[in-house]
Design brief:
Layout (H helix, E strand, L loop, with lengths): L1 H19 L30 E4 L18 H4 L6 E2 L2 E2 H10 L4 E7 L3 E6 L5 E6 L7 H15 L8 E7 L11 E4 L4 E8 L5 E2 L5 H10 L11 H17 L10 E3 L5 E3 L8 H4 L13 H9 L2 H8 L13 H25 L1 H4 L4
Parallel strand pairs: 1-8
Antiparallel strand pairs: 2-3, 4-5, 5-6, 6-9, 7-9, 10-11, 11-12
């Protein structure tokens, strides 16, 4: 009897020890993402069990209720309120941060997995989760949004915020997807305002590239009929150069909304320290709106760091490497120097044709 009792107790202890050991997290050094492919919404075989990578996150590093994003300096000082699709960006950030996921509607897969999630009352988001080997991708989405905000680029980059989502909220859409899940069953990622319309514009094709390249050349006249589209192209060129985002001009990362205005999304290919610290060619930007030239002069790394720090995940997650801020400053100065050269050569009216 005693021997049977001791054997049973030994089995219980062994089972408890096994449960206490987290599953190993696959490790892959972060690097530039693979070329984007056309989104494929096809779900995997429902019989495939969810692939979950558990990671031991101390409870102190994962607050149960993420703090609401702090009010922006603009809102606090009474400056112009930034709007996106009929709602202030600060309100979008608050709603996306605070509201739980009601249901997951669908998932898409290219380089990354992206989930279309409903937060209720008409608030829908695109959620990019943390996955093994892609732990920093969603963080760069957050940083890129703050850059667009700091530069004053309006209505082009969907508001984006860091968010924790319970694994249970993914439902069947988690099957076949490797997700990094903390010990409380939560998945970190970025939530962006859902864009219901994203039409292809084929601006990555050679004929279109030749056309819009002439629009942003101060040595060429700017066709009146193309002024607005040319301004948006100029904005995305500045945005991508400063962030060192090399994955824009393909089939899917430059699209248009229902008003035929360009949408700058899939912004996770920037901020790699080894890439951003190489200057590239600042001459890709030669003609810009005057507001954007002035904003680049003001947008110091310190201001960008302060803006990023307001994200609710910034207190517990390192969103961007310090070396990336160093590279950002190098690129900012190179861009300003190039625009000054353009002004000396072509004049302000040619280089700054928009307010």
């Amino acid at each position: 009897m005693n021997r049977l009792l001791l054997a049973a107790l030994g089995g219980v202890v062994a089972a408890l020890s096994a449960c206490a050991s987290p599953s190993p997290l696959p490790v892959r050094p972060p690097g530039p993402p693979w070329p984007a492919a056309v989104l494929d919404a096809a779900a995997p075989d429902p019989s495939t069990p969810p692939q979950v990578a558990a990671v031991d996150v101390p409870a102190a590093a994962a607050p149960a209720d993420p703090p609401t994003p702090a009010a922006s300096p603009a809102a606090a000082s009474g400056e112009r309120v930034r709007m996106f699709r009929g709602r202030s960006e600060d309100e979008w950030l608050r709603l996306m941060s605070e509201r739980p996921v009601v249901r997951t509607l669908e998932r898409f897969h290219s380089t990354l997995f992206v989930f279309h999630m409903d937060l209720g009352d008409g608030v829908e988001v695109s959620f990019q989760p943390e996955r093994p080997g892609q732990e920093t991708f969603w963080r760069r989405e957050v940083t890129s949004y703050h850059l667009a905000r700091l530069l004053g680029i309006d209505n082009r980059v969907p508001p984006t915020v860091g968010k924790r989502v319970p694994l249970s909220a993914f439902g069947r859409h988690a099957r076949g997807v490797g997700l990094v899940v903390d010990r409380r069953g939560m998945v970190l990622g970025s939530a962006s305002v859902w864009m219901p319309v994203l039409n292809p514009v084929n601006m990555n094709l050679a004929p279109a590239r030749r056309e819009w390249s002439s629009w942003v050349n101060p040595a060429r006249p700017l066709p009146e009929a193309s002024r607005e589209r040319a301004r948006q192209v100029s904005e995305v060129l500045v945005f991508d150069y400063l962030a060192a985002n090399y994955d824009r001009w393909n089939c899917c990362n430059i699209t248009a909304d229902e008003h035929d205005d360009l949408v700058f999304r899939d912004n996770d290919a920037g901020w790699f320290p080894d890439v951003i610290n190489r200057l590239g060619d600042p001459a890709v930007v030669r003609r810009v709106p005057r507001y954007l030239y002035e904003a680049v002069q003001r947008a110091t790394p310190e201001m960008l760091r302060a803006s990023v720090s307001r994200d609710p995940m910034a207190a517990s997650v390192h969103l961007v490497a310090s070396r990336a801020y160093t590279g950002y400053e190098l690129r900012r100065q190179a861009l300003l120097a190039n625009l000054r050269r353009m002004v000396a050569r072509h004049g302000e009216a040619a280089v700054f044709p928009w307010p």
